[in-house]
Request: fold
Amino acid sequence: MSFSSLGLSAPLLKAIQDQGYTQPTPIQKQSIPVILSGKDVLAGAQTGTGKTAGFTLPLLQMLGEEKKSGHYIRALILTPTRELAAQVGDSVATYGKYLPFRSSVIFGGVSINPQIKQLQAGLDIVIATPGRLLDHVSQKTIDLSKVEFLILDEADRMLDMGFINDIKKVLAILPKKRQNLLFSATFSDEIKRLADSLLNSPALIEVAKRNATSGNIKQTIHPVDRDRKKELLTHLIKEGDWKQVLVFTRTKHGANKLMAQLEKDGITAAAIHGNKSQNARTKALADFKNGEVRVLVATDIAARGIDIDQLPHVVNFELPNIAEDYVHRIGRTGRAGNGGEAISLVCVDEHEYLKGIEKLIKQEIPKHTIKEFTPDPFIKAEPIQQRSNQRNNHARPKTAAQRPSNQRRGR
Reply:
């Protein structure tokens, strides 16, 4: 099947051709015709499946079919983080470059005034994080009264970050008559409840088993003592001559410490997390993509939206305490049909986390002990300090006012 057989217009097909794509991915094959039919959609798709183009292309097609005079917001795309908002914004700009639509990305961490000027000039499509969008709503600098399309991208992560009340506030001010698309990598009970309240007789689209990992990714566990993880990571990077490695830590402080140690070991590195300014995060990601730094150390929330087609290596320096995050993390490699390698450095403290991950993905991850890093069998497990935004019913703030400002602003 080719893109031309999906009913897309000539300007869109030209933009697709410019990107060198000839065949739609499975999620694109399924979602584009359904969205073009006007139905609401509940789609389950992992990162790296082409889902962004799966909703961007039909959205642009439908906006073009019913031309309106003037510019006002007809489509609203909500994302959980700035990086993902920027990625979706790039997709809209890339595929819509031969169309007359105006779009903009709105998120926190940067001045609100340039965003206000863009909104005053008139926009057709807005891609936003919930916190900054509600800032504009409260300041009456945005008009959502004519929105025809609402897209929630990575809805599971938005709920994980405590944005449910913000989403409800946005839904309350949108027109009742609109087409709704909800994309999520996982389908929790909370996602199902949101879908029930938001979607009208939706078409269900799933291109992979829920919580499944890509078959293109080679997964390996390296057992190691907690105090030798940094040494092992440096060993792996140097011995394997890895040129581009995305490394996950549980905390911002841990990301900074690891970056400093890698630099000390002669490996160029940068860190990306919620305490970094938007400019610092953008520069770190750009330096990583263009090869100026070999290692990007990231926390889970900051890593959403990192989109690199041929990223060869992902390392879990620390296993996530939420099993689903393992799927999200390693999904950064093995994208767009390419192979990838996901390595986890696991100490005795993390054995329960590992059991939870293997239960979720329904497979045992191969273990390989590197001889010179064989763990000491006499070391006892110690409790792991959880990050402050651990997602459970007791720890997660319920309202925007209760959340730290960096979460409310889509950081």
